[in-house]
Write a structure and sequence with these properties.
With 205 residues, the chain is mainly β. Helices cover 0% and strands 56% of the residues. It has strands at 8-13, 19-24, 28-33, 38-44, 50-55, 61-66, 71-75, 80-85, 92-97, 103-108, 112-117, 122-128, 134-139, 145-150, 154-159, 164-170, 176-181, 187-192, 197-201. It starts with 7 loop residues before the first strand and ends with a strand.
Length: 205
């Protein structure tokens, strides 16, 4: 499927399996119909590279972030921008919806993770502890915890209600790029520059 005119930085598939969204260095987001295998809409509004995308659990919203220091929320069916979240000072590296779709987590080059209340369209608080930019994060299946990974070679497990770090796992001398929870919330998997995938049992920590 072709259409972008610059590097593709991120893509994501909607939970209902109907759409794929792709973000690019051409500052656009393309929405693709997976059954028809064609682009059905181009979201425009970002003024720089689009680096991060995430669909809401019900597939109705799409969140996007990138180099223009904004996060945008798009209505997938209406093909419209609903909200623009501002206040960011650095590039956005990832966005992730909570399992209930009420919160959005974002990470950036300022080494923090921000938690956004989507109903009020405001930042609730920032989680601080990483010492380099935050590359990725994922909510636990119950929505009570968040795991984040960073170029500082650490994986941090957070209690999002108490707003504190519960544990720090270390991957010595390697950038950590991606992270995910197992469906039962007991394991964390991450991939890094060490050319391997590691699994951590959070019940043992």
């Amino acid at each position: 499927m072709k259409g972008h005119t610059n590097f593709i930085w991120d893509f994501t598939i909607s939970p209902d399996g109907q759409y794929l969204a792709s973000g690019s260095g051409d500052s656009t987001i393309r929405l693709w119909d997976l059954n028809q295998q064609r682009c059905i809409h181009i979201f425009e509004g970002h003024t720089n590279w689009v680096r991060a995308l995430s669909f809401s659990p019900d597939s109705k919203l799409l969140a996007s972030g990138g180099n223009d220091s904004t996060i945008r929320l798009w209505d997938v069916q209406e093909r419209a921008c609903l909200h623009v979240l501002t206040g960011l000072v650095k590039w956005t590296r990832f966005v992730a919806f909570s399992p209930d779709g009420k919160l959005l987590a974002s990470g950036s080059n300022d080494c923090t993770i921000r938690l956004w209340d989507l109903q009020r369209q405001k930042c609730l608080y920032s989680l601080k502890g990483h010492t380099n930019f935050v590359r990725s994060a994922a909510f636990s299946p119950d929505g009570k915890s968040l795991v984040s990974v960073s170029v500082d070679s650490t994986i941090r497990l957070w209690d999002i209600h108490q707003q504190k770090c519960l544990h720090v796992f270390t991957e010595e001398n390697h950038w950590i790029r991606f992270v995910a929870f197992s469906p039962d919330g007991r394991l964390i998997a991450h991939g890094s520059g060490a050319s391997m995938i590691r699994l951590w049992d959070i019940r043992q920590n």
